[in-house]
């Protein structure tokens, strides 16, 4: 079982900030962002981590976020988070070059609370470990499993991911039913999502999938037995399966997103289906609005127009999501109506909203680029020639920007055209297919002749057994000849 | 038993040679001449009368004897001085049928001519005799002989690669070990030196083919010369195409792997856009490059780098002005850009026009083929298909193939031993592959397999 964890797992936040180039997202009238409204969607640890991320990315609201974070920390059980928060706050101040009000004036950690929590944590740990020990001595499988699970939960609350994962995986040995395996997998998935360890997610999704199938098989078998007794239980099981499947799809999507497979991410996000399916993961890990945004950005960046229309705009499940973030509907509609200027404006207006998301932040840049490139390609498609200034009007760019983008796309092969730089015109490439076919056929013909000739020679050499042999393969010819190689 | 005085032996030889009835007997006599250790000395000496045996013998009628004597004189120390004109005359007049009876002596002669000219400090004088020897000895130029490598080597030593062009333009397709005592080195050196000669003449496509043949020569272990050829191959590709193309599948994998660890690989990687990195590589590994005599090629490649960058621009732009082009290909002066552009237009690399206001308009006229060209190519392809068909049939009736096919059939059960079925399968596939050569690379794959089967 995999229990190797990236080194920075103990303090993912600091590791995160140092490896990433500091993104600074402005918060002003042009880039509205409602911190209170945003953070009220989350509870628990993810809220604190999101706040720390905001402190780092948005210096202009860092003090506010800092205060909120301190409040949230008081509700958690992990006083070490405060240290991380402080580091982030100072880092943000350095990054933005603005001096912030001293963190100790804004809000301070209640020392009494800290001491109490630490003491309580210590006591709990001892208690849980003693329990585990006694169960292990008694060899009661089910109790050992639960003890491991509790310890896992406990360490997770403290932010000790490595120990948490260790206990969760240990509990695997004591699982007696596939339902238990499934529970374990889901706990680990939660843990990994919290930890933002995207590459590991798929492993546990896969395991959970297998466990899910097994659980269903057993329940089906039960169903065939004494009919009436399990009937009610069966009814409870069916929605359960959908829940789990939705969670697994979400985890898969997140892992694809984390690894930059935007198309697959969008595909799996669409499979998540009804919001209610995600159950307690909403707000504990993710807000519905986040899913909307991930899904829309990934889809716009990778899907063809027709699927965007059918899968997003006309889908009844997705319209529920769109209510979460009203601008998303506007964005998709602008895209489908080819109002690319609006699309780009909306993307830039809400870029802060995108940058503050802990899962999305590192991909916003790539996604925006992809969407923009698609837009340029789509815009040019119906034209044989177009003046660049018309494109610049349509996209709201300067002429140089347009030219730069178009040239980039031509060179990457996305646009079949050429730029008339003197007159600022983009022309679609005209190909004479007949002539090209001739050229290709003739080239293939001559190439094949040359290849055959070389192969025939090679065959003759082998027939004559003129084969280079290992021992004295180096020949004196190499040196005496090389003096004539100096080509002027 | 025989007289031990070399002079007397020579008299005997002369006597025997001039009276023998046919050349096969002469060859047997000469090659079995005993005692062995005295043979060369004897052959290199004069007659007992002090007369030069070569003046008695007829160059055409007594080709074999002359060949033996020439070879001996060229190798034995302190032999009779040999007039160079005599060698030239011999190369022009010798009788090829007789000479083919003693391939080893021909090799010795070729090597001797090369050495003699080099020691006279006049390598150029050896070109013509070797050329004649080569032309007359080989049944036709598609046969590889041992003379080939000395000929191209001499042309390079004389710094006169044009002379080799006549020979180099006919690709080698036949190997006949009975014609010439070939070793794998003959093939390697000929194609390597030939490639260099062609590269000197800036016939890049042909040079590429020669180097490729050298690099892909069959072997269980790569030769050092192949590595050198591979380096040159990659550079020639950069010069002629602006990028390297992958080697055929049958290239020895060790060669490719070793190449990756040479400074050439980093040069290839940064070609053509990163001119600074190219210069830096050239500078940093200058000693290696100089030791391997590749600086000239590297410099040519760097010189041509802007052309490839420029060529890429034509795919993106319809018109640009000179200053912008300069920026894109990293040349500061507009005049230089103009010069590069003009030379590219002249050489037909791109089609463009420069107008008075310094703006350049690119166009790409579709490739045009005349009827005659197409017909010519079709004829070529047909003749090649015919040739391949003939080869198939030859192989199908060859003893080796049949015995293998019969052996393979034995295990199949009763009634085995008739080879018709597998035979047709194999050649059906091969035939279709080769005749559809115009459309795809099927033929080559089949050949490869047959080859190893």
UniProtKB/TrEMBL annotation, chain A:
Origin superkingdom: Eukaryota
Signal peptide interval: none
SUPFAM superfamilies: TPR-like, Winged helix' DNA-binding domain
Alphabetized SMART domains for the sequence: PINT
UniProt-annotated location(s): Cytoplasm; Nucleus
Boundaries of every PCI domain copy: 261-433
InterPro entries named in the record: PCI_dom, Rpn7/CSN1, Rpn7_N, TPR-like_helical_dom_sf, WH_DNA-bd_sf
Coiled-coil annotated residue ranges, if any: none
Biased composition (Low complexity): 219-232
Cellular component GO terms held in the UniProt record: COP9 signalosome; cytoplasm
Chain residue ranges for the region called Disordered: 1-20, 219-238
Keywords for the protein's UniProt record, in alphabetical order: Cytoplasm, Nucleus, Signalosome
PROSITE patterns in alphabetical order: PCI (PS50250)
Entry-linked Pfam families: PCI (PF01399), RPN7 (PF10602)
Composition-biased stretches (Polar residues): 11-20
UniProt record similarity statement: Belongs to the CSN1 family.
Name of this protein: G protein pathway suppressor 1
Organism: Coprinopsis marcescibilis (Agaric fungus)
Automatic annotation (TrEMBL), chain B:
InterPro entries according to UniProt: COP9_N, CSN3, PCI_dom
One Pfam family here: PCI
Subcellular location: Cytoplasm; Nucleus
GO CC annotations on file: COP9 signalosome; cytoplasm
Domain called PCI: residue spans: 206-368
Keyword entries, A-Z: Cytoplasm, Nucleus, Signalosome
Biological process (GO), any one: ubiquitin-dependent protein catabolic process
Family note: Belongs to the CSN3 family.
Name this polypeptide is given: COP9 signalosome complex subunit 3
Organism, scientific name: Coprinopsis marcescibilis
Organism phylogeny: Eukaryota, Fungi, Dikarya, Basidiomycota, Agaricomycotina
